[in-house]
Automatic annotation (TrEMBL):
<feature type="domain" description="Arrestin C-terminal-like">
    <location>
        <begin position="176"/>
        <end position="307"/>
    </location>
</feature>
<feature type="compositionally biased region" description="Pro residues">
    <location>
        <begin position="366"/>
        <end position="381"/>
    </location>
</feature>
<protein>
    <submittedName>
        <fullName>Arrestin domain-containing protein 3</fullName>
    </submittedName>
</protein>
<dbReference type="GO" id="GO:0015031">
    <property type="term" value="P:protein transport"/>
</dbReference>
<dbReference type="InterPro" id="IPR014756">
    <property type="entry name" value="Ig_E-set"/>
</dbReference>
<feature type="region of interest" description="Disordered">
    <location>
        <begin position="464"/>
        <end position="516"/>
    </location>
</feature>
<feature type="compositionally biased region" description="Polar residues">
    <location>
        <begin position="409"/>
        <end position="419"/>
    </location>
</feature>
<dbReference type="GO" id="GO:0005737">
    <property type="term" value="C:cytoplasm"/>
</dbReference>
<dbReference type="InterPro" id="IPR014752">
    <property type="entry name" value="Arrestin-like_C"/>
</dbReference>
<feature type="compositionally biased region" description="Low complexity">
    <location>
        <begin position="343"/>
        <end position="365"/>
    </location>
</feature>
<dbReference type="Pfam" id="PF00339">
    <property type="entry name" value="Arrestin_N"/>
</dbReference>
<keyword id="KW-0716">Sensory transduction</keyword>
<feature type="region of interest" description="Disordered">
    <location>
        <begin position="328"/>
        <end position="434"/>
    </location>
</feature>
<dbReference type="InterPro" id="IPR011021">
    <property type="entry name" value="Arrestin-like_N"/>
</dbReference>
<dbReference type="Pfam" id="PF02752">
    <property type="entry name" value="Arrestin_C"/>
</dbReference>
<dbReference type="InterPro" id="IPR011022">
    <property type="entry name" value="Arrestin_C-like"/>
</dbReference>
<dbReference type="InterPro" id="IPR050357">
    <property type="entry name" value="Arrestin_domain-protein"/>
</dbReference>
Length: 516
């Protein structure tokens, strides 16, 4: 008993899912004693891997050396890891008993189909790991299959008819032996497994060489692309083949052939970068004797959803391989919440009275809604005193001779003040000059009509004889001496400075000159 004897149970009986579905499962095991580990986690991923090898032999110094190159490609479509118990660190103690650990993982809708080939594959895996400290981890793996639907209605090429025209000329010993013309017609270029392809086949043999048989076939071609040591690998296989003939010389044969597409796996490899799967419809004319064959091929689409109106009522032969998803196991039902109005009340901010939301209930459970409830309308009311930032229920711009913006005029009257924004009363940020007691203007504080005395004629305005006193105090501290200023000589010799202005008292200056 324990993890090794446990099992992974999925909600799909055949372990198949469509791209875009969600995987629901659970890990079931029974423990008979306490188990200690760091955690139990499930990891789900989808990936593509391409690999093949090539050998090269070369001769160096008379010795043959063989080199092997590994051509690889790898990409992941999704990867998810979730802990069912415990975590990345620490210890978790699991008690004895039966344990069921549910998990789920959505599959992205843009994933390619599961595929297994000779040189590569696309796989989707579920791995559950018991992470144990200082011990080997315990693992369980389960591989699932993903089907990516391929709808032929989205590809215009599938609706186009297909026609082959093969003409041959036969010669023997430089002598003409006649010619043949083969025509093959198909109504469309895309089909699904289980559908029947009605084929019109006509061969006109105008020579002496017999046409032994005409082959009609569907061929599958898989191409692998490697990124590490770039290279390409091809894999071909025959899906279906039919034969008609012979056509004797100088004769014409026509057939209506019904070719049923077999129940083959359909792969949608569009999202995969390294694996391409294509189908070709081939026509081969095989003449008798030593003449060479003539072959022509066209691409044909094989999908899961048939073209509308063309054999779309035929049952799918692969129905038993489609996903068989059971109801979700041990999953709580989803919480159903009514679709409510996103606004707190019945007044909508839109012009009309029909709210774009179905009801008037608030989707918020708290008593404080995100929008203020006192003002049900997010715009101001249509009153002349309110400054409306947005227009009301009327036209956003006035019509007629009314200007789009209000005119600053005290005589202007508005017929409908709520039609468009109105300016607020113009209030000056400065105090009123007439009513302000702090501003002394006019004649207050002044004596009008006072005579101003004038100077006698010929006398100028007197100026002070001494310069005005310095409002700043004179520095009393001695000027700091510069180190070594006695030894230093000025960079530029000082010259006596001439007086830039004439002396203020010329008589005093003349006396000074005479005393010298």
């Amino acid at each position: 008993m324990g993890f090794d004897e446990g099992s992974i149970i999925l909600n799909s009986e055949n372990e198949t899912y469509f791209a875009g579905q969600t995987i629901f499962g659970k890990l079931v095991f029974e423990q008979d004693k306490v188990k200690t580990f760091r955690g139990i986690y499930v990891k789900m991923k989808g990936y593509c891997k391409v690999h093949w090898t090539t050998s090269h032999t070369e001769e160096i110094n008379n010795r043959r050396h063989t080199r092997t190159d590994n051509h690889d490609s790898y990409e992941e479509y999704f990867s998810r890891k979730m802990f069912l118990l415990g975590g990345e660190s620490g210890e978790y103690h699991l008690q004895p008993g039966k344990h069921e650990l549910p998990f789920d993982c959505p599959i992205p809708a843009n994933c390619p189909s599961s595929f297994e080939g000779e040189y590569g594959h696309v796989r989707y895996e579920i791995k559950i790991v018991v992470d144990r400290a200082f011990k080997l981890d315990q693992e369980k793996k389960r591989q699932i299959r993903v089907i990516a639907p391929l709808d032929l209605n989205f590809d215009p090429y599938c609706k186009e008819p297909m026609q082959f025209d093969i003409e041959d000329t036969y010669c023997c010993c430089c002598m003409s032996s006649g010619s043949s013309a083969t025509v093959v017609k198909l109504p469309a270029s895309g089909y699904c497994p289980g559908q029947t392809i009605p084929i019109e086949l006509s061969c006109s043999n105008q020579g002496g060489v017999e046409i032994e048989r005409i082959l009609l076939a569907i061929q599958k071609r898989v191409t692998y692309h490697a990124v590490n040591i770039p290279g390409t690998k091809h894999e071909e296989s025959m899906v279906l083949e039919m034969k008609k003939g012979p056509v004797p010389g100088e004769s014409t044969r026509s057939w209506m052939v019904d070719m049923e597409v077999p129940a083959i796996d359909v792969y949608n490899m569009g999202p995969c970068r390294f694996i391409d799967i294509e189908y070709d419809f081939m026509v081969t004319v095989i003449p008798g004797g030593c003449h060479s064959n003539s072959e022509d091929r066209r691409s044909i689409r094989i999908g899961t959803v048939p073209l509308m109106g063309y054999q779309d009522n035929i049952p799918n032969p692969l129905q038993d391989q489609m996903p068989q998803v059971m109801p979700i196991m041990n999953q709580p039902p989803p919480t159903v919440r009514p679709f409510t109005n996103a606004y707190p009340n019945q007044n909508s901010p839109y012009p009309n009275q029909n709210s774009p939301y179905p009801n008037q209930n608030s989707p918020y459970t708290s008593p404080n809604p995100p929008y203020p409830s006192p003002n049900p309308v997010p715009y101001p009311s249509n009153t002349p005193q309110s400054n409306q930032p947005y227009p009301g229920i009327n036209q956003p711009y006035p019509t007629g001779q009314n200007p789009p913006y209000p005119v600053v005029s005290p005589t202007q009257t508005t017929l409908n003040p709520g039609s468009y924004p109105q300016p607020s009363p113009r209030v000056s940020p400065y105090p009123d000059r007439a009513n302000s007691p702090m501003l002394k203007t006019g004649t207050f504080g002044f004596v009008p009509n006072v005579p101003v005395p004038s100077l006698p004629p010929g006398i100028n305005v007197p100026y002070p004889l001494t310069p005005p006193s310095n409002p700043y105090a004179t520095a009393t501290a001695p000027e700091p001496a510069t180190p070594d200023d006695d030894q230093k000589s000025p960079l530029v010799p000082k010259e006596p400075t001439a007086m830039p202005y004439p002396p203020y008292n010329p008589e005093y200056m003349d006396k000074m000159e005479q005393n010298k």
